[in-house]
């Protein structure tokens, strides 16, 4: 949705534009964070420092300084992958109802999926205060700093128990 909004704002209304095009940053599911980190590359900035960046089209890149995690489901729902059908389904932990992704009743979508307001209210931000936090094998015994290795291990542990 953010990508559509950015594209709609980029429609030329004058031949001479004084600003560059707007782009939305890509979304990744929590279980796809390995692909997010594998797409990051070292880039040299104007001050000759090296930072991890994310490639865009036409030789441009951006350097993320954090990851904003948003929850797509309401609090009473969890998602899982069915072993029998190999499809994603949503399970209500309160009334024990479940719905496969491809046959959710239209009246249940607002009950299952969180609105932007709800999602943003429950957000979590992982800010990269230490540049080594996102390096693949970086590890320190500082309990106040979350490193990539800890984050990936946490996700793998959660997915193994799901």
Features:
single chain; 162 residues; alpha+beta; 3-stranded antiparallel β-sheet; 5 helices; methyltransferase cap1 activity
Main sheet specs: 3 strands, antiparallel
Characterize the overall form: globular
**Number of strand elements:** 8
Average pLDDT metric: 85
Stretches where pLDDT is under 50 for at least 5 consecutive residues are: none
Radius of gyration: 20 Å
Termini separation: 28 Å
Number of helices: 5
H/E series, N to C? HHEEEEEEEHHEH
How much strand content do the residues show? Answer: 15-25%
Structural class: alpha+beta
**Strand order within the widest sheet?**
1-2-3
User: What's the number of domains?
Assistant: 2
Helix content: 10-25%
Can you describe what's shown?
The protein is of the alpha+beta class and 162 residues long. The protein folds into two domains: 23-70 and 123-162, no CATH class; 72-122, no CATH class. Helix content is 24%, strand content 21%. The protein has five helices and eight strands; from the N terminus they run H-H-E-E-E-E-E-E-E-H-H-E-H. It has helices spanning 2-9, 33-39, 109-112, 116-121, 148-161; strands spanning 40-44, 50-55, 61-62, 66-69, 77-81, 88-92, 98-100, 124-127. The strands form three sheets. It has a three-stranded antiparallel sheet. The longest helix has 14 residues, at 148-161. It is globular and about 55 Å long. The two termini are 28 Å apart. The mean pLDDT is 85.
């Amino acid at each position: 949705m953010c990508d559509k909004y950015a594209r709609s704002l980029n429609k030329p209304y004058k031949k001479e534009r004084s600003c560059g095009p707007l782009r939305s940053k890509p979304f990744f599911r929590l279980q796809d964070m390995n692909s997010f980190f594998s797409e990051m590359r070292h880039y040299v900035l104007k001050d000759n420092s090296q930072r991890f960046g994310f490639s865009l089209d036409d030789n441009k890149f951006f350097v993320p300084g954090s990851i904003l995690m948003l929850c797509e489901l309401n609090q009473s729902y969890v998602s899982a992958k069915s072993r029998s059908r190999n499809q994603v389904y949503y399970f209500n932990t309160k009334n024990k109802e479940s719905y496969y992704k491809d046959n959710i009743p239209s009246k249940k979508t607002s009950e299952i999926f969180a609105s932007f307001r709800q999602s943003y209210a429950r957000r979590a931000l992982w800010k990269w205060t230490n540049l080594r936090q996102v390096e693949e094998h970086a590890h320190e015994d500082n309990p106040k700093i979350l490193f990539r290795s800890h984050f990936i291990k946490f996700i793998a542990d959660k997915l193994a128990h799901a």
